[in-house]
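Run: sequence + cobalamin -> complex structure.
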Amino acid sequence: MTHVGLKEQLQKVLDPFGFEVYPFKIGWYNAVLEPTFYLSYNEDTLAFVILSTPSMFEKAFKPFLNEQKLEHVRDPIDQCVAYHMSLVKEVFPCYKLDIIYDYELHPNRRPKVLMQTAAHISGATYYYQRKDVQHDPWGDKKIYGVCIHPQFGGWFAIRAVLVFTEVQAPALEHTLPLDCLPSHEQRIQLLEQFNFNWKDGKYRDVFPPKEKYSPEQTLYFATPPAERRKLLETWGQLHSSPAC
Ligand code: B12
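>> structure
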């Protein structure tokens, strides 16, 4: 199957559940990174970055809670994403697929994939970094970068990278991400909100998004991970397991 066919198949499996897929070549990713972060595949190897959009909560997460057995130790959203990636694997039985999740770390705690870089070079979301601002006002403070989606602003997450390890896509066209914040003032404001006030979520609203998290979903993600199961139980989304 060509990269176009593989993308269509992936979209067919993931779109209905509120995920988006964007193809890229490993070489594009490695080209902007320091060697310690390289993914070790040939440069033309085909990969996809997977985003969750606001509707993932209703379309994938809630049905998952109702239908699947939750493991006790793992984060419920991570389990839901992993479940959908397992369905992807079933659709491509003849392909060797490596799936790398946003939370996966090497033994030295370095992330296995830099999701923001992958999202940028695939054309999915622009990754605004400190170096995209001239004469910044932050002195020697550490400033983290943030991706902005052209439709959902900051209301999305970057969940995984799928690598079709044996598929080469030399003809894949490089799509640039949409720069929604061309002015330096807007970029400074975004980076300040993301770094100094991320808890209020205002960085997500850099422009009016097409869709954002519902109040329920916002509350879920604002709840510390250790208390999320309790929240799901109070919503009746999760039945507390009997003591045994
Ligand atoms: C570790 C981590 C943290 C740490 C450190 C943050 C950091 N950025 O280093 C902490 C705990 C502080 C953190 C906090 C948060 N995080 Co966090 N975090 C991560 C994680 C797991 C790894 C990031 C990392 O270590 N990067 C390593 C550094 C070195 O990468 P870098 O700064 O991008 O540097 C590279 C680029 O500059 C690149 N490069 C160089 N030149 C060029 C040129 C171009 C064009 C490009 C594209 C790249 C590029 O080369 C450098 C490396 O060589 C990612 C998930 C993932 N696997 O990527 C989420 C992630 C970055 N976090 C995310 C979020 C949302 C948050 C929080 C808001 C909390 C939350 N989860 O709700 C807060 C906000 C930040 C804050 N104000 O504290 C999101 C960001 C989404 C977005 N829209 O961008 C991510 C992607 C998780 C996700 N699943 O979506 N996080």
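>> summary
Residues 32-34, 37, 102, 111, 113-117, 120-121, 127, 129, 144-147, 154, 157-158, 194-195, 198 surround cobalamin (CB under 6 Å). Residues 3-234 form one domain.
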